[in-house]
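Collaboration report, partner site 2.

Our partner group contributed sequences for two proteins of shared interest, and the home lab folded both. The records are reproduced in the order in which they were received, starting with the first partner submission.
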Amino acid sequence: MGILDSKVPSGPLADKWTRHKNEINLVNPANKRNIDIIIVGTGLAGASAAATLAELGYNVKTFCYQDSPRRAHSIAAQGGINAAKNYQGDGDSPYRLFYDTIKGGDYRSREANVYRLAEESVNIIDQCVAQGVPFAREYGGLLDNRSFGGVLVSRTFYAKGQTGQQLLLGAYAAMNRQIHRGKIKSYTRHEMLDLVLVDGKARGIIARDLVTGKLERHSAHAVVLASGGYGNVFFLSTNAMGSNVTAAWRAHRRGAFFANPCFTQIHPTCIPVSGDHQSKLTLMSESLRNDGRIWVPKNLEDAKAIREGRLKPTQIAEEDRDYYLERRYPAFGNLVPRDVASRAAKERCDAGFGVNKTGEAVYLDFSAAIARYGREKALTMGLQDPDKETVTALGEEVIAAKYGNLFQMYEKIVDENPYKTPMMIYPAVHYTMGGLWVDYNLQTTIPGCYCTGEANFSDHGANRLGASALMQGLADGYFVLPYTIGDYLSKDIRTGAIPTDSEAFDQTEAEVRERLGRFFQTTGTHSVDYYHKKLGKIMWNKCGMSRNESGLKEAMKEIAELRKDFLENVKVPGSMEGMNTELEKAGRVADFLELGELFAKDALDRNESCGGHFREEYQTPDGEALRDDKKYNYVSAWEYTGNPADARLHKETLVFENVEVKTRSYK
């Protein structure tokens, strides 16, 4: 159905975006008043796009399943947002941000998109400061920066450990202004269940009012999907429990190609799993790796004693600690990229050095930072020879000012004081680099269907660097989509309103109604969560931090069997009418059960290791990812053919003209 044309402009890399903006078609203000746009999702990507498009004059409808746009999962982002403003004077530049992002993604992202992201990053900070986002500031009043993994400069702007929340409040304020002006119609507690195509173009959606249960038809001249990632296919992840793939997957079934589904990020800094009772995992911000040192005991006997409760981490002498990231990657140390840090933690725990009861945890220790900051603060206070207790108290004050809310959250969950004893962390599913394939204009293979933020595949390759998710979401929403969607909509200025009483809407709504109705025709006894947990275990064990050919083949078979059992035996109580949270979950898990199989198929097809995709058969002698650039230097874009196992592969060859493609090294 779609043609894989990336539409990357010609010319030098640094000129592509400027030239493209100068050459694409525009819509004049009078005509924008006659054009409708639907935006699904109100996180940073969706809210920023909605506010900007409405400000430009378009009529915008936004949809979110939460009770307020402010509750989008973007609020969970903690550590910061990248921008190449070089406030630290440490040599940063848009090119260096571009290079770090390309390298961090293990050379599996599109050069032109990444350079545009680096260009626009400097504008994002100015936009957010103007909105009143309370970024941290240095003593002199200038905006402060800290470092994140995979870089050698400080380019991450932050608002304590609440950066996502503060940025979303800024975007929501801009969005709320347009709601009061009547330019945005906000539909909360609504879930998109299908995409409506009219003459091959995206012209609307079928949504369900989650309070009344009513199916609704909404039309527009273009549809923007900003619905986030699909990490909850693993059941346990750092995502909000409601995060799902339905909007993107429904578009995929209508003809939008799904790109690189196996590129999923495992975050190294999460609170470890404590038991089968859990429904989600909690992220500890990567910003903690600025000051925390990661270690395990050097001796197996000490690790065993800690697991059995006979020894405490504070009793392990410094010479008996293995700071394994500093040992293996001296240039970057604890600030290696997330995929590298995650695999290193798994390797140590698999070797028997894990430190919690399950053996799947390592330490994140702040004692050295507390001592360092304490001595520094004591000197600034004129204390020339402070005792240890004073240094510790002063150091803890500094750490509390930087990370206090994160430390408080950890203590509430684990019931241990991280100022006094090291945090325990372990990798967990966090972010999805894969998503709907989009061209340079952020348009999917369905004309009129656009995709922004984490829901698309475009900027991060096989591994996202920390603090780049917020950067991409806001760049897409504030600075990219408002230009590129105008080029498409310039052809719709005479179209007029899109009617919803057409055959296309009739048929799509009937299909949605039939799909939901089937959940009440089964006679099984198993809950939706029963199947979701089973799927999650398959995904984690066979498609998680490491994969191999036999495991992936088993996963595809097991997921197909589980999906068949689900459709025949799931128990969904109640009815379609009114509020029914089990029905909501059933629809989402049904889509996860299809996505999971495509995920495994994509991982099986890619016979190499790169970024978050680690195939055990393809690694260097010292356990690093081993790419195959001759065979797999492309984006895998899958076309839906009726069954995930039979999905048709399309390839977008990646061309690198401005960076040298080489084996990543953080040593």
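Second partner submission, folded after the first:
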Amino acid sequence: MPTAPRSLRLAATAAGLLLASSMTITAHAAPVPTPAPAAQAATRAAADWSAPLSTQGRYIVDSRGNRFRLKAANWDGAQGSYNGSGDVDDPASHHAGQNAHDIPLGLDRVPIARLLSDFRELGVNTIRLPFSNELVHRTTPVPDAAVTANPQLRGKTPLQVYDAVVDALSQAGFAVILNNHTNTSRWCCGIDGNERWNSSQSTGQWADDWVFMARRYASVPGVVGADLYNEVRRDILDDPNWGLGDAHDWYAAAQTAGDRILTEANPRLLIVIEGINWTGIPVDGLPHGRPQLTPARTLSHTLVDSHKLVYSAHFYGYTGPRHSGATGIGETHDARYQDLSRDELNAALTDEAFYVEESGRHYTAPVWISEFGAGAGETNPATRAWFGNVTDYFTDHDADFAYWPLVGFDGHDDWALLRYDEGGRRSGLLDSGDWRAPVWRHLMDTPGKTGSVPAAAVWKMLDTDHGDAVESLRVRGTGDWDSGAYKAACPDGLRLAGLSHTGGRGLCTDAGAPGLRAADGAQSVVKDERFVSGGDWASGYTKLQCPSGAFLIGYGLRGERVSSALCAPGRSALAGGGRTVWFDRSDNRPADGAGGEFAEGAYKGQCAVNEYAAGIAFTTRLGARQGPAALLCRTLP
């Protein structure tokens, strides 16, 4: 987001701290007018893809398996524009003097069909559409003045206007990613009551709102994603975290909301999880910085659908790896991204986000830079150079991206790609003289990967750090298979490939044998040695072995002790020799490190890609760790 509001809020914060498949469209609002010829042409160009979207390795693909690159922009406004002080009806009290009335900007100045035509002229195919939780519950209609150029929207609530915008975008062939940007209808992103998903509400209420929104647009084919929350960051007293299991655990909250959306509302949606934007106090000498996606390297998300996770991050020139973006009070001596050399910037982008696209890891997923931008009036050479360097990186890495912002008022927000005066006349990137235009065209026009994306092996981690990790819909449908234990089960289509000796972590994959499980949905819960056959593969240890022809898909733990093995039958005979993989005294994993570091700090055992796990061994000796100590790995047919 633009510089000044964020800098002022962070500076004030620091001062305070120091002092203390395609479906028929269902319209949700009044019909959108028939597009003009230019808009109709834009519709045809935009519709060269087929919903729903999913992921294949580091790429997003459409329903035909073709690469769909998110060339996106943020159409903001519905998340709120009020700065938090002054008369709420005075435009001067709103960001950049623009009162959005809690609906997407520009509907007072330009008919929606013309706006969409202008979007297509920019070349974008996807709209990130922010909203606030307050908007979801507001029942007061927007003032007529807020929709002057779109009179069919008079008398509508902000959510009903949002409905109409979503429908119009979908009908015009754009992909739409819903973005929960704020709790309250206040401009973010500093200390403003919107720092965390649960700053102004409970995590349960937040997830309930997501289920409501995902259901609301489930029949709109253009709605392809749920971007769970924007720029999770510190408030005055507390940091968010990634995996501690408390009320500030963004990892756990995103996991909960993502699975609820997919199981209760709309299984077609991509689930977009942004990294943590800021932790610590922005004061020299005190810990602070932008974790972004770095925590996913050792703790990544596993959803009930292994092809729906997208990670995201934000980069602006005025911020930095350890710089809040503030000026004056609250500014530290850390480098901003625009202060970095081209090579240093590339290294930072890779380390903080794009390493996630490395293939064959539990964290492998598409990375979407869902915000970046610069002002048309920018004269700072460092900022201009940064804008060129960061977009060059996006081009070189064939990255998915979304510019901030798309629409603004002429004379108010020069960051916007498109600006409109009170008469609806357009200016901005499409005009001659905008220094950003050549950079934008290079980003948009440089060819990237297109066409069919080959199937990629999936690797996913399971963690029982703070509870169950049952990510199989089939298993969930059978009820509680080991009451009182912490349970973990691989997503459907994957098998268990690795376990940690301590910590309760597991590794799942379909590498070498996609679709290994029989179609009948049967499973076996093994709690004793009744199925042990073929010799004593772990002498002196308790062995939980799958029945003949079955393979491991899950496990149960009571404290550290193994309590059960969960097995599923193979679709064909699973004969083949076996070997014991011990890991109670050291790591025992394939040399290529397939799957990545899924249990940092613990000993780990893992079957090879051409094997499946058929049993778990552990000891019950007094004083010994009773977690998994060995796997029985058998050769795949």
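Feedback sent to the partner group on the second submission included the following. The chain has a mean pLDDT of 92. The chain has two domains: 54-445, 459-635.
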